[in-house]
Amino acid sequence: MTGCQVWSFDGAGWTWLNEAGFGGPGTRDGRQVASWAMAVCDNKLYVGTSAATPDTADISSYPGCQVWRYDGGTSWTQVNIDGFGNNHNTMVRSMATYDNKLYAGIYYYDPAGAPSSNKRYQILRYDGGTSWNPVRETPFGEKVEYPDSMAVMGSKLYVAIANYMTGVTVLSYDGATWEQVSTPGLGDRWNSSGRCMTVFDDKLYLGTGTDVLEDPIKAGCRVWRYDGGTSWSQVNTDGFGTSNNKTADSMIVFKSDLYVGTWNQVTGCEIWRFDGISWQQVNAGGFGSPNDNSAAGTLAVYNFEMYAGAYQNIQPGSSGFQTSAQGRPCQVWRESAPQPAQRVAATDSIGVSEPRQKWYLAEGSTDGGMETFVLIQNPNDTDVQVNIKFQTDTGEKAPADLQGIGIPARSRLTYKVNNYVASYNVSSVVDADKPVIVERALYISQ
Predict the structure, then answer these.
(1) Between vectors from CA 331 to CA 288 and to CA 1, what angle results, nearest 5°?
(2) Which domains does the chain have, with CATH numbers?
(3) Which residue has the higher pLDDT, 328 or 56?
(4) Distance CA 380, CA 27 (A)
(5) Which residues make beta-bridge pairs with 95?
(6) How far is CA 311 from CA 10, 265, 294, 308, 390, in A?
(7) pTM to 2 decimals?
(8) Residues 382, 200: Cα–Cα separation, whole Å
């Protein structure tokens, strides 16, 4: 076992960025076998790892989980003490950036004889250097639980706490206090995990599953929309029609639709698209190889295309980790689509005389073969924070991932409006904490 690897993709090829396991084989660092979580904070990439789970109760030689910051090239800096000072903290299960701070959810491994003074799970805030401070801790007990996923909506951080005894619970955090915003299991204890969570159409969505305990009802995975208070509404049929889809493993918004990837060890992982009304499967089970691709563990958008990371999972309750010696290696798939239409016309906004903090871009369309882009230049010597909102014929839209955008000093970022709204009538509002220069480009294709 050589350890986890981090790769980047530039649209043409893949580049391996780290030493396997963030250390040589046979070293303690080499036991970082998986990178479960990634997040960008302050324009830096952070990766949270998982240490190998031992076969015995003695884990004294294992380092615990780690967090690494990418410094460019193949250079990385570890920004935590191994296991955050406790090698029973074996996994960084989730990460998110909230209020310009990096947060990490830590899983505690419970071998026989573990001291009862330890915490079952922790949610930690990164304060620089190797300093992490707990914002939530749960005392050691009989419950098997950990922070499964995180998402930011509005002014709050949301965390799904997996619990294989009573069901997943969702918490919200406003920077000072925690509030429970769901009943355990959302009313059904077999909704035990909450592996994925994101904001779609200004609503929080959560994917649940029954990936460890055997559900006697055999419901399969479920997707939920948060309606406020402790109220959630299921928006899919159980398991998308089959109990073989045991968990919703991944979730992302792409081209104004919500996509969910499943874990299915019978017919292979499935990818489902939701337009806010109905669902449609958009891949062949397991991408045509059910034995190779049982889980769609992650979804991502790059250069206006969607990517899925798939792997062959081990059976629930099995010990050890899946390696190429035990099965087939992981695979990465890109959404296949027809060649784009040829652009035949374009318009642009006029030049400006000076930077400003607020901009109104009246013209725009994202339907009928038209593409609209908002371009923001930061001419300042320091970073700026920017919010982008859209005015449409159905009201204002404020996508969560376009609020609090960090734009580095003396740089420009471009945002495709089509990825967030679909309307013939759309205008844009840009609000920054320092003066910026904003441009709107519109292209018409046939």
Answers:
(1) 135
(2) 7-334 (2.130.10.10), 343-445 (2.60.290.11)
(3) 328
(4) 45
(5) 104
(6) 22, 11, 6, 10, 38
(7) 0.72
(8) 31
